[in-house]
Here is the input.
Amino acid sequence: MSGLSIRTTIARAGFELRVDIASDARITVLHGPSGAGKTLTLHAVAGLIPCPGARIVLEGRDLSSLPPQRRNLSMAFQEPRLFPHLSVRRNILYACRKTGGLAALADALDITDLLDRRPADLSGGQAQRVSLARALLRDSDLTLLDEPFTGLDASRKDAAITLLSQLRRRILMVSHDPDDAARLNAQVVHVANGTAQ
Amino acid sequence: MTLSPAEWQAFALSLQVAAGATAVGLPLAYLAAWTLARRHFWGKGLVKAAIQLPLVLPPVVVGYLLLQVFGRNGPVGAPLAALGITLPFTTLAAGIAAGVMAFPLMVRACRLSIEALDPKLEDAARIHGAGAVRRFLTLSLPLSLPGLLAGATLGFARGFGEFGATIVFAANIPGETRTLPIAIYSALQSPNGDAAAARMVTVSVIAALGAFLLSEWLERRTRARLSGRSK
Here is the structure.
């Protein structure tokens, strides 16, 4: 049995995507053209869209019937979705009550100086890094990352890739850049023409 | 210009009635607003219409209906009377009348702010382990605070100025149910009451303006805190 197995059909507004993914890799990258359904696949795994008959198994644990909050996942969305009334620090800790590890993670993502700011004060790239930190600090079984390097300059993207490579956690991520998968030594799943496998 | 003790009494009673109606009515209004904004159920349109009814009915009619329901022979009043509790023509009746009249305004203000909440933020909270109660306490409630404040202001103002339903359901008893609007009405009905009425009208205008400015300031502050930038 593979570490992560996703089998479902996602139907949304006339669009249908058949997903059949089995991956043992620590990092799996969904790669494909815009509109192919990569983000939909992540949302299906997260349980944020209804997928009747879906079968999502992670390390032998069937997540399919669990609500999102009980799947023990974490996620950085394509748009950062930070909570506007909370400071950056509280946004990151929202996903995880333990503060240990925050300093190192903030340092790696170069957001230490931003911790006491509000999301409204951040640029797009800064907000993206905070969202990534929120997803990575949580001790989750699977981290879902949707285009996590969007808006990052080259050096910060390099730092983020190094960080993801070093972390010992299972990641399912969306990227449109084929180099990302190679640099992360990830298994690639092609999403195109209504299928993801 | 100073108010007589009886006029101060009417002013204080109005404040007490409006504050009580808002304090009790606002949580109920938020619950009703949440249900209307988030839940789909059979008869939702009917519930919505029933909540809005006091806005479109003449207040005197609302007072009459309250009297029918809470009166000695009413469906709620009869069992209460058996327990020795009488509601009509009491200060509590004035509070209920003010609360019922203010309720649709409070519900509307709360509903608008609940509908404006971004469901994507709730999804972000859910995926990071937040259950319904935590999402409500940490996201929905604080982010809809401006609507709650607006509802409180509108509800208080409506309760403070309530006349028609109050005079029918609670009557005009000095010290007990004679609120400021009823005291103004009484003064206008009595010979040489013009000066007293003018004094109370002036106080009403000052109080209403003060409450409005205070709520504006509070709302601005809250909005700035919620969506705003670091200091």
Notes: The two ends of chain A are 16 Å apart (CA to CA). The mean pLDDT of chain A is 89. Chain A has one domain: 4-196. Chain A touches chain B through 29 residues (CB under 8 Å).
